[in-house]
Design brief:
Order of helices and strands: HHEHHEEHH
Strand order of the largest sheet: 1-3-2
CATH superfamily: Winged helix-like DNA-binding domain superfamily/Winged helix DNA-binding domain
Radius of gyration: 19 Å
Shape: elongated
Distance between the termini: 58 Å
Helix content: 55-70%
CATH topology: Arc Repressor Mutant, subunit A
CATH class: Mainly Alpha
């Protein structure tokens, strides 16, 4: 069986809305613990840990153990497969925006 492509792993990790919310909170902090992520989230600590495990496997977060705590931080390079994939569609969007610009000039010269 073929191993999943990095883009598949990243998309799968970010497909879950709760996991995306966890990732956004990690991105918004320099470093953050599971306890801090759990507080006010309405999600159990075990579930947060599982989401972090998926994000870590996708290369989106890294961990740093310190004593009894583990601190998580975002790994921006983990988004590279997604950015690369989206860059293939840049021409599509450039053309659409150019068409929109032309249309707007026709409507309001």
């Amino acid at each position: 069986m073929l191993a999943p492509a990095p883009i598949d792993t990243v998309m799968r990790a970010l497909a879950d809305p709760t996991r995306r919310a966890v990732f956004e909170r990690v991105v918004g902090a320099t470093e953050i613990t599971v306890a801090e992520l759990t507080r006010g989230s309405g999600v159990t600590q075990g579930a947060i840990s599982q989401h972090l495990k998926s994000l870590k496997q996708a290369g989106l977060v890294a961990e740093r153990p310190e004593g009894r705590n583990v601190f998580y931080r975002a790994e921006p390079e983990g988004l590279a497969p997604l950015a690369d994939w989206m860059s293939h569609y840049a021409l599509f969007w450039r053309e659409r925006f150019a068409d929109l610009r032309t249309l707007l000039k026709e409507i309001d010269p």
